[in-house]
């Protein structure tokens, strides 16, 4: 046993999971983990790499915890694209696959015979592991491996709380797993959506009077665009956390206006270093402090570098060029900082647009465009240009037609942005490009 699963006995009849209108107590969770350990896991040795093909469900959470207890190295895979599944299984050195269909666990062996030194290290130390893949928006997804015992021990000694929380971010996402481990360590109740449709999520927020919503700027803006906050009673929300991408200041102000009772907290973390404890300067400010004794940070040429006790052991399919020799992770996030210790994420280094040597941050341009009342959403990105190298392009969701939209945007931006930052091309779209983690895709292939 370990402290996480031992706690389930203490939480006993408290509701742990609500999924598909069914309730599962911590006692049921404990008993099912025990059952899985005695049946399915009798065919799986400690230290084996096991891929779970599933998103969140009662069964996938049971399996994750049982494999963690069995000291396995776990690969959560939520994609349903067969090529992506095949690639992840191969690049994680998976030896067992468990596909969850309905409530059944289907176990399959792979022909994996290759080994990796980092995996061998975990096996020799008898530690559980976790392999996550980057979103791959700017290239091949990186397979990163964590010491899962180390990661989960970071949640130890949390105070028990009677709280309903929605498990919104995904099963293979560090933010989603952070929410999961927080809930389990506090004995709180997680509500798992059947899908991540805006209306369906908001109905759950209403029906279960959820107080904390972990999300992304893109999803929060979808709520406003869809007017879901008017269709459903979301007055129970007391905390809305946002991360995974840069928040436009104008969007944050609009959100605060629509959710006056909720405190807005910017979260920050990476798959490589884990989730940091943060505090926002205020609910309507995009400045935050990293208040985490387990994590160090520094700013090098406007880029945020991190070093944490929960960072990855390494990559399985890529070089460690993002890390310095002394263990600092170069996040690629560009920041501004204040003398009193607050920092603001202003963009990603890979997304900066170079217009004839002048640098343009997409988030700055988007924040201005989103102030236009006829514009519901905007995404700014680069396109090649023969003369300047790159030029600024934006996708917008609007009721205006293309010619009028371009004229309105250029006129509005004229006295708010330098001329080279103003979009030269405007594309009208039904929705901006974002991935299944509700993170904008600015790099166009």
The count of β-strands is 27
The largest beta-sheet arranges its strands as: 6-5-3-4-7-8-20
Molecular shape: globular
The whole-number mean of residue pLDDT values reads 92
Sheet having the most strands = 7 strands, mixed
The CATH class assignment of one domain is Alpha Beta
Q: Could you state the oligomeric state of the chains shown?
A: single chain
CATH architectural group of one domain = 3-Layer(aba) Sandwich
Description:
The chain is α/β, with parallel strands linked by helices and 445 residues long. It has 13 helices and 27 strands. The chain has helices at 3-11, 26-38, 58-69, 82-91, 117-125, 148-153, 174-186, 198-207, 217-225, 228-231, 249-258, 362-369, 402-413; strands spanning 15-19, 22-25, 49-53, 73-77, 96-101, 104-109, 129-133, 143-147, 164-166, 189-192, 212-215, 239-242, 263-266, 268-270, 274-276, 278-280, 288-290, 295-300, 303-308, 314-315, 329-337, 343-348, 353-355, 358-360, 375-385, 389-398, 425-428. Strands 6-5-3-4-7-8-20 form a seven-stranded mixed β-sheet, sandwiched between helices. A four-stranded mixed β-sheet has the order 2-1-10-9. Strands 18-19-21-22 form a four-stranded antiparallel β-sheet. The chain is globular. The mean pLDDT is 92.
